[in-house]
Design goal:
This protein has helices at residues 2-25, 27-30, 53-76, 80-84, 94-104, 127-135, 151-154, 205-222, 227-251, 268-273, 292-304, 319-328, 347-362; strands at 87-91, 108-112, 138-141, 162-165, 175-181, 184-187, 259-262, 277-281, 309-313, 331-335. The chain is built from 13 helices and ten strands. The strands form three sheets. A four-stranded parallel beta sheet has the order 2-1-3-4, with helices on both faces. Among the domains are: 87-170 and 203-247, Nitrogenase molybdenum iron protein domain (Rossmann fold, 3-Layer(aba) Sandwich); 251-363, Nitrogenase molybdenum iron protein domain (Rossmann fold, 3-Layer(aba) Sandwich). With 364 residues, it is of the alpha/beta class. GO terms for molecular function: metal ion binding. Keywords: Membrane, Signal, Transmembrane, Transmembrane helix, Transport. InterPro entries: AdhesinB, Bact_metal-bind_prot9, Lipoprotein_PsaA-like, ZnuA-like.
């Protein structure tokens, strides 16, 4: 009796497997969209055809393999909302915002990390900026230690996945150290060990093109599906920068080697590009009042070099510059370092063209 029972159970198991495999292969024929697909069909619905054991074993293994493959494929199909999500990009300050938003166009969401009016040289984080960082896919910075305040957060768990330094790759073009005298700056070949590069490269439109190219490459790598759009946008924007450079060259051609004094050491790249001669700066260290001895030497430079203009900055008023201008009968005008301002796509070119107008008027 026991033997017969075991035989019956074995037969039942085989018959169940046969019916399950047949049911699985018949599923497509029997099911229609909108109907609930049960895990195991009713026995009465299954065909009763007997299948040889060898074929039955093969079909069972074949069916399980395809079932597992299907599950794996389903697990790797991206969700529709993820596919439609735009890349979230943060920028550190105004020029980098302008470069990035012109390359990204409407293909990515670009937002500046710092609020309008915040100084990119020295910034204190609030929870709002930390939250912005945590929600971004990418952050684009100028580099060259301009955003040193960002270093700690960039290496924290809240940092974006991708960090782009727009100045990366510049070597011989960099200017190092503080202002020396009569426009003599150290290049990368003559810099002293530990010297910090001047970070104001965006004020040279040709170096700005370098930054735009780095931003383009980063966006393509992060979002290859939109590479054609990014490339098209970058080409159009670089054409605008080329036009800007051409107009600056033409407008400042008559001012070549003209001696000027600036408030801070912010314009060496601009001066080098357009052959202006910076013969002095009022504050060698920003916000540090110069000594009487230094001011006396600056006065002698103004007289001997026949300086026509002192240039302060739109972002910083300087009563000292106004006083020096009155004492030596030299005009005082404002240039824009573009470190702060309204966040709009044309802000960089608008400011640079305004700088050209100021220089043309002051140096004529």
């Amino acid at each position: 009796m026991k033997v017969e029972t075991e035989k019956a159970m074995a037969w039942g198991r085989k018959n169940f497997v046969s019916r399950w495999v047949q049911g699985a292969f018949d599923l497509r024929r029997r099911c229609r969209p909108g109907r609930y697909l049960g895990i195991a069909p009713a026995a009465s619905a299954l065909p009763q055809t007997k299948i040889p054991p060898a074929i039955r074993k093969f079909l069972s293994a074949f069916g399980i393999t395809w079932m597992l493959l299907g599950l794996l494929l389903m697990a790797h199909v991206p969700d529709a909302s993820a596919q439609g999500k735009k890349l979230k990009v943060l920028t550190s300050f105004l020029p980098i915002y302008c470069f990035t938003v012109n390359v990204a166009g409407d293909l990515a969401e670009v937002e500046n990390l710092l609020p309008a009016g915040a100084d990119p040289h020295d910034f204190q984080f609030s929870p709002r900026e930390v939250k912005k960082l945590a929600g971004a896919d990418m952050i684009v910075v100028n580099g060259l230690q301009l955003e040193a305040w960002l270093d700690k957060l960039i290496h924290s768990a809240e940092r974006p996945k991708i960090i782009v330094e727009a100045a990366a790759g510049l070597k011989s073009e960099l200017i190092f150290g503080a202002f020396e005298k009569e426009g003599n700056y150290r290049s990368s070949e003559t810099k002293e060990d530990g010297a910090i590069p001047n970070p104001h490269i965006w004020l040279d439109p040709k170096l700005a093109e370098h930054e735009v190219t780095n931003i383009l490459e980063a966006l393509i790598k992060a979002d290859p599906a939109n590479s054609e759009g990014y490339t098209r946008n970058a080409r159009a924007y670089i054409a605008k920068l080329e036009e800007l450079n051409g107009r600056l060259e033409a407008g400042l051609a008559s001012a070549k080697a003209e001696p000027v004094i600036t408030l801070h050491n912010a314009f060496p790249y601009f001066a080098r590009r357009y052959d202006l001669k910076i013969v002095g700066v009022i504050e060698k260290v920003p916000d540090v009042e110069p000594s009487p001895r230094y001011l006396a030497a600056l006065g002698r430079t103004i007289r001997t070099k026949k300086v026509k203009a002192i240039f302060t900055e739109r972002q910083t008023s300087s009563r000292l510059a106004q006083m020096i201008g009155r004492d030596y009968n030299v005009s005082v005008a404002q240039l824009d370092t573009i470190e702060t301002g309204e966040f709009k796509a044309t802000a960089y070119e608008d400011a640079m063209y305004q700088n050209l107008r100021v220089l043309e008027e002051s140096l004529k």
